Amino acid sequence: MSIQTFTETQTDVSQFASIHNARVRRYFRRNNQDQSEIAKQRAFLQSRLTIDPLKDSKIDCVFKCLWFDLQIANAFENVGKFYGMPIRQFQSEVAFKPQLCFTFREREINKQDLPLRTYKLEKQISFRLNDQNIPKTNQQLKLLAQKIKTKFWTANKAYNYTCGLISFRYKDDDNGYRLSIDMNTKASAAKLIDLLLDIQNVKYLESNLRSTKFTKPTVPERELILQNRVTKPIRGRTGKLYLYRVEYKHSGIVDKILIDQMGNISI
Fold first, then answer.
1. Beta pairing, strands 79-83 & 122-128
2. CB atoms near residue 100 (< 10 Å)
3. Domain spans, the chain
4. In whole angstroms, how large is the CA radius of gyration of the chain?
5. How many beta carbons lie within 10 A of that of residue 44, not counting itself?
6. Under 8 Å between Cβ of 110 and 116
7. What is the biggest distance separating any 2 CA atoms in the chain, rounded to whole angstroms?
């Protein structure tokens, strides 16, 4: 017996496909900052996950929905985001402050980080730029990128650190910093935080630093959300992370990559 298609309930399926395909297009929308290989991957996944209600069987539709949901879940699970201030400020009465966003990424998966994972660990650190440091021209933005590269690339080698089991929090509200970084030693955390602060010529104060050591769970934690038992990502993933990308985020314009993974200034 052949597999039935959705053509018998075309109206319902067209509505379903329209909603699903809109989500797919939005998630894989083209980004002018993408490298050619990433752009190809976006286009490939968008094509494979788009539902054709006239051709796809019921199994095909369910499979594409599940595949898409897993794609989103993996994206959120694989990236640990630590923001100095919110990337987006939704209160209409609060003026948005431009942000610098640093992405650190493993080059090789840490095989000692159990349970085993198949993805490369990523962490992000971001903070707002104070009024006097907001670039007004592309040339000023390029000078900012050069200043960052001088601090975070030495002899064409990207800055790196080991992600550990001590959570260090640095709070300096006067200058707009609330940073959180997981490392193994206070000295390594202080070094990275000092480099970040120095971009805006802000002085590091040890009195602003707090730390909490946590134990990595052996079994993933589960949480009850809307009567569904959900498995949470394992906290405490460890690995050696290298500076992978530095971005400039400003409301109203496309995010700009200042420095790419090779240390090239992209402005």
1. parallel
2. 22
3. 6-76, 84-259
4. 22
5. 11
6. no
7. 73
The distance of Cα 266 from the centroid of its chain, to the nearest Å, equals: 19
Cα separation, 128 vs 144, in Å, equals 14
Residue showing tokens 């959705």? 6
Determine if the peptide bond prior to 217 is cis (ω within 30°).
Answer: no
Task: For residue 199, count other CB atoms closer than 10 A to its CB.
Answer: 18
State pTM to two decimals. 0.62
The pair of structure tokens assigned to 98 is 């431009």
What's the pLDDT tens digit per position in 126-142? 999 999 999 999 999 99
Q: How far apart are CA 58 and CA 9, in angstroms?
A: 11
In the numeric block, the tokens 């990559």 are attached to: 257
Structure token digits, residue 97? 């402050």
The helix/strand count (H/E) of the chain reads as 5, 13
Q: pLDDT digits over 151-190, tens only?
A: 999 988 999 999 999 999 999 988 989 999 999 999 999 9
pLDDT for residue 194 = 98
3-state secondary structure of 135: coil
The sign of the dihedral angle between the CA atoms of 131, 132, 136, 142 is negative
